[in-house]
Amino acid sequence: MTATLSVRNLRVEIPTRGGVLRAIDDLSFDIAPGEVLGVVGESGAGKSITGSAIIGLLEPPGRVAAGEIRLGGERIDDLGPDQMRRIRGRRIGMIFQDPLTSLNPLYRIGDQLTETILTHERLSQRAARDKAQKLLEEVGIPAAGARLSAYPHQFSGGMRQRVVIALALCADPELVIADEPTTALDVSVQAQIIALLKRLCSERGASVMLITHDMGVIAETADRVCVLYAGRLAEIGPVRAVVKHPQHPYTHGLMSAIPSLAGDPDEELAQIPGAMPRLGAIPDGCAFNPRCDHAFARCRAERPHPYPAGASDAACFLHDPDPARRPPEPVARAAAARGIAAADETPEATS
Amino acid sequence: MTAAHTSPARTPAPDQDAAPLVEVGGLRRVFDLSKPWLNRLIEGGGRVTLTAVDGVDFSINRGETYALVGESGSGKSTIAKMAVGLLPPSAGRVSIDGTDVWGEKGADAMRRMRRKIQMIFQDPFASLNPRWRVQAIIEEPIKAFGLIADPKDRAARVGELLSLVGLDARDGQKFPHEFSGGQRQRIAIARALASDPQFIVCDEPTSALDVSVQAQVLNLLRDLQERLGLTYLFISHNLAVVRHVATRVGVLYLGRLVEEAPARELFAAPKHPYTKMLLDAVPDIEMEGKERLAIAGEIPNPVNPPPGCHFHPRCPFVMEHCSTETPPAHLVGDAAVRCHLFAEDRAKT
Amino acid sequence: MPHVVGEDTSGAAPARGPLRRAIESDLWYSFTRSPVTVVSAAVTLVMILSAAFAPLVAPHNPFDPATISILDSFYPPAWMEGGNPRFLLGTDDQGRDILSTILYGMRISLAVGFASVLFAMVIGVTLGLVAGYIGGAVDSVIMRIADVQLTFPAILIALLINGVARAMAGPQSYDQVVLVVLVLSIGLSFWVQYARTVRGSVLVEANKEYVLAARLIGLRPWTIMFKHVLPNVMGPVLVIATINLALAIITEATLSFLGVGVPPTEPSLGTLIRIGNDFLFSGEWWITIFPGITLAILALAVNLLGDWLRDALNPKLR
Lengths: 351, 349, 318
Prior knowledge:
The structure holds three protein chains of three kinds.
Chain A: E1 5-16, E2 19-31, E3 36-40, H1 47-54, E4 63-71, E5 74-75, H2 81-90, E6 92-95, H3 99-102, H4 109-120, H5 125-138, H6 144-147, H7 157-169, E7 175-179, H8 187-204, E8 207-212, H9 215-221, E9 224-229, E10 232-238, H10 239-244, H11 249-257, H12 297-301, E11 307-309, E12 312-314, H13 333-337
Parallel strand pairs in A: 3-8, 3-9, 6-7, 7-8
Antiparallel strand pairs in A: 1-2, 1-4, 4-5, 9-10, 10-12, 11-12
Helix pairs in contact in A: 4-5, 5-7, 7-8
Chain B: E1 22-32, H1 37-43, E2 49-60, E3 65-69, H2 76-84, E4 91-96, E5 99-100, H3 107-116, E6 117-120, H4 134-144, H5 151-164, H6 181-193, E7 199-203, H7 211-228, E8 231-236, H8 239-245, E9 248-253, E10 256-262, H9 263-268, H10 273-281, E11 330-332, E12 335-337, H11 344-347
Parallel strand pairs in B: 3-8, 3-9, 6-7, 7-8
Antiparallel strand pairs in B: 1-2, 1-4, 4-5, 9-10, 10-12, 11-12
Chain C: H1 18-24, H2 26-32, H3 35-52, H4 54-57, H5 98-134, H6 136-150, H7 154-205, H8 209-216, H9 221-257, H10 269-277, H11 286-313
Helix pairs in contact in C: 2-11, 3-5, 3-11, 5-6, 5-7, 5-9, 5-10, 5-11, 6-7, 7-9, 8-9, 9-10, 9-11, 10-11
């Protein structure tokens, strides 16, 4: 079966006065039909840019410099703006963080929905309006018939995001890209929206690319998860494997840094020293090497590509099939966490 | 990644029977949202008021962290502003170390009181003046309170503060935009420490930060509390974060404290239906597939809150008189719960 | 401290000096990328310098009766038939060298322009800061006055103030205070824009957390306004000031052209155009056209600079 979305060796560049920045570097992943793929990373890791690149809405001067993007087997990264516009909305639905950016404040909700339905389907005005009402009911808006003639500002934040979901789903797209769909919402509303999104997409068989910084949301929603770091793939795998048995040192650090409701609250949170490098200052070799306990000479010279690691793939030399080329055991993890470069003393490995 | 170790700081301070450092009583704040007088006269429509904080009481012992948890419209940031003296309360009092923050007194007493209170803000990109060097930002409180007169000594103190929060002493010569979000929050912490305060209000200090940096800042705040004996009022919407810092927790809903309990008790046995709902809404990172309380509805408009118990329209255990009577605080063990479910006569059944 | 680790590579880099900061700044970068702006800046600079050093640059001193001869009157520009190589742009009815009168005239035009912009800026920024930061009734009063003033054209206000001042000073002493009156009247007709812009920015800035942090340590409102808020709202003010400089120069020229400005004994560009206007139809066009062209170039160059500054400081347009 062909993947709904297939991204191969994607590279997104942003030319600036200081040189060309690689916002996304050599990123590959697939989303199977009906699958929810979570894309996580810290701010600046490139998760939203990946989404924009797929829907052809990269903010200039950003551009896709290499690689290919296929939707249902067809290449879409080389399409013109008009063809791309037809694909957006019809074959790819979009949900953004701020519902107000997707809704026109001057039009009634019903008009926006019917207009979108009519651009994608040959229906009578009345049939389209009926469909709009049915959609609003499906996303859980009470008194949907009456609410069709309301304006976006008359809805609460959670209700607006429901309308946006209805709008994204109204052409029955194959793929829904949701970029931080719950970040602007209150905790108690977040869970409702996540559950709704998941239910509707699985009912329709739509694949979902869920972009978020919140590992908790991913753990609840996604089938597989793709962890980005400094525009590169760190780890990709089934969500349970990544959450419970992270294979990349970055994923491992990220998972232990999340405060949770289990475990001893008096224990200090594990922390990763330092911060993600800016795009202009990505170190040679592995982007994570200055913050990594396991780093050795090879990590500073050569960039790791994804190796199979447990149930996942991780871009880390720890998983090099040749044990001789893996990093040596860390000398003192605690020392490294205190900023002392323990890795400097590790014996040089052949590279 | 740091080896985890257990910190002794979150067991209650030894001199527990001493008076609490911070006492908040009957705190209330009403905002007037009415249109200007002339517009009301012409367009009609009466006064519109919003009760952001409605009779909140709590106290914080020295060396403890009191966390206020709530969603938007709960009034948590309004309480923070009243506690530090940025916003006058409509009623009630806040006292720090026995001095009323909003009482009338001379400029001298005011300065002495202000020195004891500091605040760490949510957005590290807005909390540092972009036109000032870090050195000037951190030494401003030192100058304002006239703590160190000699510029050389002052610069040395700024360097000391910077290394205390994990930055380089030479970073003082840079501007805020040269730092990442986490580093800026460290600078904000250094500024807060500059006047040797006893009480620091942390208003969502990590919600603008990425997870790995959030852990750094939370650990830093805990270390500083241990070393300097600080008392925190920690404001957050994230229960998982609160669990890692708080000694006591108060849960706010539409301006009222619906549950207040020692942190361990609140997380082990939440009592108010809203607290249970909030805890259930935290995404399950452990992936244990836990049972959940169904969540319904959204927070009502605080201008027009539901009568009686504000939570009753969303409450799965709603009773007849919930919509008419405001529940008083019932003591259940160490917790105080504002819910009719815990009224004396019902508690036994 | 077990847990503190420097966060990224910028840890120990030395602080940069002000000159390097200026050269590396975005403003300088966008400046060098815009040829129109570089040309207007050069033109503006040359005009300001030659006006400032008019006594050194000008070939003649048009206000020294000893060097003026009525016999030199009405020479056309030097390249025309009957032109005199001593007078590049020709002479006027009294035998004064046009190029020199333009240079001296520009001096007055620019001086009045700069002074009135400065005056408008001080009033407008102060009132805007006060209105925005203090709010309430003070805000309402200031902004309603501004609204009312905005319904009248600036030139009308300037004429009004000018007329009142002229009546109060009397014809003799008026000539001595004319420059001050001009600066006051132009300045007072332009303050509204500054006040509105600054008030708007202050409303945004005053709620930012760095201002709260300053209030927290008990700084006085006045200190916070000038030390914290003002530096952060100066960007738009500089843009308005630059565009206003061009407007102020033109307003001064208009007033002088209408005869309520600078007297002919010490002519500004506007006065020169008015004097020349009388001779336009008798064929001596150069007396009015050259000051006119100078005024147009000056106003255009300054305006283009203002446009660039506005775009460069507004990240949304970049």
